[in-house]
Amino acid sequence: MSDFVRICSQSELPAVGEVREFLVGSRAFCVANVAGNIAVLDGVCPHEGGPLGEGIIEEGRVVCPWHGYCFDVHSGVSQQDPDVRAEVFATTVENGELRAKI
Ligand code: FES
After folding, report:
1. Which residue in 31, 35, 67, 74 has the fewest CB atoms around it within 10 Å?
2. How many CB atoms lie within 10 A of CB 39?
3. pLDDT confidence tier of residue 69, bands split at 50, 70 and 90
4. Are 47 and 83 in contact (CB under 8 A)?
5. How far is residue 69's CA from residue 15's CA, in Å, rounded to a whole number?
6. Residues flanking ligand 1, CB < 6 Å
7. Which tens digit of pLDDT belongs to each residue from 3-29?
8. What pTM did the predictor assign?
9. What is the CA(94)–ligand 1 centre distance, in A?
């Protein structure tokens, strides 16, 4: 049994250079499209709980709208403090759906 869960349909994915928030149950996820590559991060910023899925992408990183911490979409590490790290999930696209291993 797979532990990949559906995040959204492929047609709902953010455009290149954009970020969108999706809820799975009550849990928020941040889906980022960095130069055509889709990344899924925890939607709750590890700094002080801001909505990462409402952020923007700058220089290939997701920028939190609250205090501007910038997160690498591969490692989740913030540029401002290496101890502040967002969870990054493995993803797959199957049958027209984005799934993440959570
Ligand atoms: S809550 Fe995200 S940068 Fe502070």
Report:
1. 35
2. 22
3. very high
4. no
5. 22
6. 45, 47-50, 64, 66-67, 69
7. 899 999 999 999 999 999 999 999 999
8. 0.95
9. 32
Ligand 1 pocket test, pick from 54, 61, 62, 67 with the greatest ligand atom count within 8 Å of Cβ, gives 67
The 3-class secondary structure across 9-65, one letter per residue, is EHHHCCCCCCEEEEEECCEEEEEEEECCEEEEEECECCCCCCEHHHCEEECCEEECC
Q: How far is the CA of 96 from the centre of ligand 1 (A)?
A: 32
Q: Which two tokens stand for residue 34?
A: 């960095």
Q: b/e for 58-85, b at 16 or more Cβ within 10 A?
A: eeebbbbeeeebbbbbeebbbeeeeebe
- Among 19, 52, 54, 66, residue to substitute to test ligand 1 (most atoms within 8 Å of Cβ): 66
* β partners of residue 70: 63
Q: From the CA of 44, how far away is ligand 1's center (Å)?
A: 9
